[in-house]
């Protein structure tokens, strides 16, 4: 990888043609930076071993929790603490950056058809 060239989040995310399918754009130590497009509802899940950071680049993301929800708009971020059950959703398409440790499964232990392959680079 050429370390002398900057990455443009939106240029990378525009290469993605599926929703809920994160793609790695960079790594730092054991963490991956992933871009993803979201639309509609995801599933309830948690990550028992790690926090998960959502940074919205375009649109507005809703993350439901069992005791409420948070709305995250473009230019904002939210960190879901490890072990907290959550369900992301987007009424309109959302483009975002995820930061999480390498190997984290997007559906946690829930699995299912929305489980994305890990370590897919774009």
UniProtKB/TrEMBL annotation:
Segments forming a coiled coil: none
Pfam family, one: Cupin_2
Residue stretches making up the Cupin type-2 domain: 42-99
The organism of origin for this protein: Pseudomonas frederiksbergensis
Protein name from the UniProt record: Cupin
